[in-house]
Specification:
Elements: E1 6-8, H1 15-25, H2 32-40, E2 47-53, E3 56-65, E4 72-80, H3 89-100, E5 106-112, H4 118-126, E6 130-140, E7 143-151
Parallel strand pairs: 4-5
Antiparallel strand pairs: 1-2, 2-3, 3-4, 5-7, 6-7
Length: 153
Amino acid sequence: MPDLFQTRAPRATDIPTLAAIADATLFPGSLLRDMMAPALAGEGDDLWRVVTRDDTPVGFAFAQPEAMTDRTWNLRAIATHPDLHGAGAGTALIRAVEAALHEARLLVIDTTQLPDQERARRFYVARGWRQVGTIPDFFGAGEDKVTFVKALI
């Protein structure tokens, strides 16, 4: 049985679809074009992966190396179409990121303690991540930063 979801590098033609997913889940989709521009031009160290179903983009992940660290990367964003939450697209993405970062030592992701991020926190723990810290009011008053890590080697 073929995998329902495939992952690949992003294409410029993906941006409108991925921007709508960003709007619905994470941040203003209008930011996506500029965020992805270096990767689409083959520049910089950022890692982008797109998850597709039937060759249609249904999500994305974005990671960057952390400056002044020994092979530590930060998974800055991971998002899938809301209709596909729990269907395996996020798992396919996170596996693709981890595989692409085969020389990385540590992968970090931040979220919040807010109730709407409970599903994300459970998602990370279920995939072998561990919560290592919280910074109160980091993102704003009453919105704490919750950090998860996963050792890759």
